[in-house]
């Protein structure tokens, strides 16, 4: 009996020792995976991407700070792993008759910014299209429409080219799902959390057998938004609901922090594409630009995102030259066709 108990004791001790070694191994493996994931996250946050394409299909080569980026001319070039937030850029067109375009390329860490190379009068200019987090959905030439009156964006999904707003219902969304995970057979669970460079990551590793059951619910129709009525305004509505004053002020503060008009224009367009503005708000933003051509570019872009478009004539006050007023008026006329 004593011999049996002794053997059972050593067997139990051996099993416990194996469980301890397994647990320690899983802890080390989990920590290693967390560190790798954190390092990858930090690496993404310290680099940026940029996509450049020509509206009319001209082939080009990009030079950044004196270094050639694409070996042969292309119509669409993606730059990855950019470690600075601004570069001296030269665009050399394959057709020598088109010359070159010198500009400053601005990017932001952890972001992928898309630019269009557009011919404006007798020269080429760089125009902001979109900004997305790296790894998210990025814009490209196929999502860019240059037939909407010149602003370069396809205003489907609510806006029409007659200056009015067509409410388009959003697709139905699921009411969520329930996921249940059950661990059986005496599995060992390891919980952990690590913080590297301000990024905190947590998780759980189970060494036992797990069974996962996911149940999807039904479909809940989206709520119907209440139409907004601007007091004293009887004209056509260009978008459904204006930007709230506190959010607008925050956007103005963000734009004001930018050192150059190109930066301000990029941020302003980013704000506009996800909001609806009053003409008075558009006028305030337009005054923040130093140069007339940037004010004009902004005023054209903002027209498709303005609520009280019949009041848009007040934007003429921000221009110094009559030619800018005429250019904006021609744009609005062509936009409404």
TrEMBL record:
Residues 149-187 are annotated as: Disordered. Residues 149-167, 175-187 have a biased composition (Low complexity). Residues 243-332 form the DUF4476 domain. It comes from the Bacteria. Pfam families: DUF4476. This is DUF4476 domain-containing protein.
């Amino acid at each position: 009996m004593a011999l049996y108990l002794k053997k059972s004791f050593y067997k139990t001790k051996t099993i416990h020792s194996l469980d301890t070694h397994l647990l320690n191994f899983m802890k080390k493996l989990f920590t290693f995976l967390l560190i790798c994931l954190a390092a990858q996250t930090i690496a993404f946050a310290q680099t940026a991407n940029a996509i450049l394409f020509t509206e009319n299909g001209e082939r080009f080569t990009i030079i950044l700070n004196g270094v050639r980026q694409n070996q042969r001319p292309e119509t669409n070039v993606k730059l990855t792993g950019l470690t600075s937030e601004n570069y001296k850029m030269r665009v050399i067109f394959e057709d020598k008759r088109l010359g070159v375009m010198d500009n400053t390329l601005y990017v932001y860490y952890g972001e992928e910014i898309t630019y269009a190379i557009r011919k404006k009068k007798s020269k080429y200019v760089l125009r902001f299209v979109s900004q997305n987090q790296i790894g998210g959905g990025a814009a490209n030439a196929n999502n860019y429409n240059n037939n909407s009156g010149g602003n370069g964006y396809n205003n489907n999904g609510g806006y029409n080219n007659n200056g009015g707003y067509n409410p388009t219902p959003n697709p139905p969304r699921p009411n969520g799902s329930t996921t249940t995970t059950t661990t059986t057979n005496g599995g060992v669970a390891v919980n952990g959390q690590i913080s590297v460079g301000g990024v905190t990551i947590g998780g759980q590793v189970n060494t036992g057998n797990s069974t996962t059951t996911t149940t999807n619910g039904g479909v809940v129709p989206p709520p119907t938004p209440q139409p907004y009525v601007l007091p004293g305004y009887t004209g056509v509505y260009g978008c459904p609901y204006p930007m709230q004053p506190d959010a607008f002020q925050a956007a103005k503060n963000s734009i004001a922090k930018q050192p150059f008009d190109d930066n301000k224009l990029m941020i302003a367009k980013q704000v506009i594409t996800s909001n609806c503005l009053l003409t008075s708000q558009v006028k305030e933003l337009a005054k923040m630009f130093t140069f007339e051509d940037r004010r004009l570019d902004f005023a054209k872009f903002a027209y498709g995102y303005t609520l009280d478009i019949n009041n848009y004539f007040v934007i003429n006050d921000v221009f110094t030259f009559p030619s800018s007023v005429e250019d904006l008026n021609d744009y609005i006329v062509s936009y409404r066709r």
